Amino acid sequence: MNRSGLIITIIMGCLALLLWKVVNTPDMEPSWPSKIQGFSFSPFREGQSPSKRIYPTVEQIDRDLAILAGDVHAVRAYTVEDNLAEIPKLAAARGLNVTLGAWITPDAERNEQEIAKLIKVYQENYRNIVRVLVGNEVILRADQSVNQMIEYLDAVKKATGASAVSTAEPWHVWLQYPQLVEHVDFIAVHFLPYWEGIPVDEAVDYCVMRYNELKERYPGKEIVISEVGWPSGGRIRQKAVASPANQAKFLRRFLDVAEKNNYTYYIMEAFDQIWKKDLEGEAGSLWGVYNNDRELKFELIKPIIRIPKWRELAVISIILAVLLLLALFRDSRGLLHRGRGFLAIVAYAITTFAVWMVYDFQQQYMTASTMLVGIVLLFAATGAILVILTEAHEWAESLWIAKWRRLPPPAPPEAAADETLPMVSVHVPAYNEPPDMMIETINALAALDYPRFEVLVIDNNTKNPAVWEPVAAHCQSLGPRFRFFHVDPLAGFKAGALNYALRQTDPEAGVVAVIDSDYVVEPNWLRSLVPQFADENMAIVQAPQDYRDGDENAFKAMCLAEYRGFFQIGMVTRNERNAIIQHGTMTMVRRRVLDEVGGWAEWCITEDAELGLRIFEKGYAASYTPYSFGKGLMPDTFLDYKKQRFRWAYGSVLILRHHMMTMFGLEQTRLTRGQRYHFLAGWLPWFADGINMLFNILALGWSWGMIFFPDYLSPPHIAFASLPVSLFFFKSLKMFFLYRSRVTATRRQSLAAGLAGLALSHTIARAMLTGFITRRIGFFRTPKNARANAIVKALGDAREELLFVVALVLAIVGVLMRKDSDMLDIRIWSAVLAIQAIPYAASVLVSLISGIPKLPAKLVGVMAPLRGLGED
Hints:
By secondary structure, this protein is of the alpha/beta class. It contains 30 helices and 17 strands. The strands form 3 sheets. An 8-stranded parallel sheet has the order 1-2-3-4-5-6-7-8. The chain has a 7-stranded mixed sheet with strand order 11-10-9-12-15-14-16, with helices on both faces. Helix 14 (368-399) packs across helix 24.
């Protein structure tokens, strides 16, 4: 890291630390009273649950009461099942009063048993039992009717003779059933504003308002707040955010108001109850003032800080950011201050988010399912972060480089004397190509301005003589410089044809050049680029793939714009570290090196990129020039466009599998770190597409589970939502800005290129996943001069993508029909599904555009000719 990078890193570190500090500014709140009136008391620990009939021991109950003794006047019990019936006796020994409870369910026989035991426990411990509650939110759950509850209440009052018998319900139930009020000695009301989506800053006033509303409706009736609280974690419910800071803020404010207004209350609750997570979600387990380990969760007296350990987290995030920047700035000569600053912002933002995400996730209680989710989240976050970092690195190097170090302009005609130029053998492989197109390609080669060259046309496996014989005859008419070979059968696809041509090459040829059969080259192609082979270590000289039919219709104009991005952005930045992707057209290879590495790999359907990697492994150099010296034809239909990209992506997986030891430095070669980085970073977004497809399948499964089992499945953690959304928008912004600045594309062309690129996401995903489970598929020839699709066929060409669109849209509709559709995480998850549908919708749209070949290219705009980087 140089001086500039060090200064930027320090400045951004200070700003990051300041941000952590500002976000965690202490809030002054009323102090917790020295002794509060009551706690809701459930002494269950991890692994215990009333639904599983696993109860705490008497000793555990007593230890919990000992924790509370001296800090509270009374505790509220909810049931007399099992050892919980011992609470009054144990509480009396600790100097605590008790509000005794009976748990009422839809089971009438069980209710009779519960009530009978309640009466017995009351009679044995009446001295410290100050109130009796028959049922908890029974009417809210619709477990019993109001009339049945009145019968239970009357029976308990008669049997116990207690003067304070009631049932506990939320405020609106009491307002709805005045007849119930007539049969209770006091109103036991629940104020839980979190469940109602009330923001924490309004929550205490909301409780007071509802308290006064009950007081006005039922004057003279005592009101006891039997539950009041706020969870320390869980889903965001409308404007209600569950967090430790908000829990502390609400409770300390409420207690201040309650003491001033002489409310009788029971804080919900003393200890976190992990078993409630299965019934009420994450929030249900996090209402305790103490956690499951019986430790206080927040400060009772001191100022409240949103993240108490923010200093440690800030240091961790800064250290991680510095490590990232050491890697990003490792080879950043020529990167301007703005580029370094941009990378620093991205690095600090990523590490800050990652540290917060891990911290926030750890605030919940870990079960087997949450651990599994955490592992998946960790892998997903790591992948997304790596993609964002590599995209940011390319963004910075593309926009803010002071000077390109390895971007020589084409040599002028007088740069080298004819006698110093090596002989070039131009190879043109073909299979079943239209003869008129082939003849046009050959005529362009015949017009090359170069002293010594030969042209070898290799037609392999074409069955129809009417296709290849006219081409053979035309070559013969051009003289001995042009040789035509028809070989059938010939294995190895394109690589097999090129290896055959290599064996037929003139021994004097020092350079082998390859073009596709549809390319029309410029006369100065060889003369402009061959002089670079004067460097004995130069093994590859590559010109960009370019196309001449971009003005034919809107579909091809979109494709041309999409192709341009790689050849004017990706290839240029890769060239700086001698790490270009060799392409099988408009490429030149030193003959000696081609023989040394064993020719073209017939096992690989992307033999060109694989050859380039083998040459790099030998320590040779390659050069790329962003000037167009030849133009070919693009796929005529979206289906052919997909097939071409599938082949490229599938081939990249095979290359990685074949060269994995080399790529990860486990096998000794002459590959540099920069070369390894660019090959892995270049393939990473494609691997991300494959992972994204798996994510979409899982997201659909989860969403349909949310729809059909709403009581058991809630939206995934918001951190899950943030990853695909962040990645999508970051890549979209990068593409748009770089197209505007480096490709010199208009807004329409930039958007069209982005749409075409998105349309290939599913194809790339399938290719990447297929590449990991297979080793060989057929070679996909890209048809030229094919008949364009009709509309119906165009939809058929994108049928998989269309199915994904339909499935995702239906999932969105179904999720938004849930009862909790107004909650933030539901809306965010719906937005995630909508964003995930965009690439699939883009596929359908682009396929339809390809099916309307009469749509004019001017709708997109025809790209300017390629005359170097950023030139018009």
